[in-house]
Amino acid sequence: MFLALRELRFAKMRYTLIAAIMLLVSFLVLFVTGLARGLASDNASAIQRMDASHFVLQQGSEHRFARSQLTAADESKIREAGASESTPIGIRQFTVTSGAGEAKLDVTMIGVDPGGWLAPRTDAGGMLAAGGGEVVADAKLKTQGLGIGSVVEDPVSGRSWKIAGFVDGASFSHTPALYMTLADWQSWRGGEPSYTVVALRDASPAALKALKADEAFELLTKAQAVSAIPGYKEEQGSLLMMIVFLFAISGLVLSVFFYVITLQKTAQFGVLKAIGARSGYLARSVTLQVLLLSVSSYAVSTGLVALMQLVLPDSMPFRLTAQTYGLTGLLFVAMAMAGSLLSVFKVARSDALQAIGGNAA
Amino acid sequence: MKTILNMQDVVHRYRDGDEERVVLSGLSLQVGAGELVAVMGPSGSGKSTFLSIAGALLTPSEGAVTIDGSSLSGLDTKALADLRLTKIGFIFQSANLIPYLKVEEQLRLVSKLSHADAADAARRSDMLLERLGIRGRRRQYPDRLSGGERQRVAIARAWMNDPPLLLADEPTASLDEERGAEVVRMLAEGARSDGKAAVMVTHDSRVLEMCDRVLKLQDGVLVPA
Lengths: 361, 225
Description:
Chain A is α+β, with helices and mostly antiparallel strands.
């Protein structure tokens, strides 16, 4: 502590520069993480918020909801397979017009049982009424000028629905969700009763095994269903790669910086050891410096990210929870500590004998 | 007179390629409290090896070293570091102060390392800096001090833990005649007044008159000069 702090005080410029680099890297880590989380939510929150563990799709859908179509007979077959907690859903991306400005909106229509366990719990306004004629919308649609009581219309069939309430964070493939009753869904789609997928929860292992074995169906876990949303894997994959690289860069930059500084100070460490400092004390001193620099850089960058969030446009998908801040911070500091290992090793190897005979000058 | 440093039949060998070289061949030395001993010898005669062994930095191939009653044989690196901290004060050729510590912090570091009481340490460092005439410079970094002042800080640092043994490695090498004599006089007076044993490796013949004994390192043993 004694040495670590005084050296930071003495070589302010040097350590400020490295702290600035750490600050920028950790800012970028947080920014990209926030973007990745925001995009993930923008892409999949309608699925993620569902209290379902698995989804059953039509065979040959290749994990894509859009390609799946299940009949009423399929649905009862799934229920009879032992998955009693099952409920059918209709999902379709569609373009509607808002009654107000005749503006076209890309949305995802989701048909659910209004009394079932997938019925959306609204954050504003009323629940989805069993009677029909109403929809519950993703709160993002408020920015399009829609409010409770606004009307959205299918320009093809001429059907329209009134917005009863809003839910926060319900979008699918970057489009806001509109929930309607399954009955409305059926009459809007016309023809024989059909569904897109069947959601399951609390299904017994035996039921899951039977459904998996059934040639007529594809069984997906929720995570599989999320990553099968078009673009989801690609977006998250490339952002994750950036984050991993940023972590690696921050670890490497720190380790090179501290290694060079430690090399410069080898003779000094020799003197300190000669006058009686233990290797452990000196190693802790270096580690403490790394800890101080990484923690303070991260703290400042969380502040900067919070400030930046204030000026980001609402339409920008950016999402950072306290948990993500905490986890990212832990990883960042851990990476920095790993980067200091090389220096700690070098400190332990520095030889007190160097101090004798004028070698340490 | 109490013997502080006792080196008995110390032999040190090291391998240089295929050849085995003997640097010290049965060196014995006793230094008592209050005594300043000068060790001379041409370069390559083993002065650094001798000082490293006396200073618990290097373990000899054979022989026994005892400092203030404690034998060095069989101690691990941590125990040796602790022994150097409490029993030995080092004064190096070019002061070797820590560049980022102010003068009084150089002294406080030593007391920190030995977990001494902070108030006692402050009193002692004030006393030492006063005695060596550098109290006015106590808030300066080493790069603002002259060579003589730096060496005086090094002496104060060596005295900080009140060790029974002081080891000086050519302390006058980088100083002019006047400053060099002053530094050695301080070493000698300190040793006498506080009852410390002091060993100084030097080839500066101008300062020998202030030493109690002058020895020469020749063929791996110490002989009177």
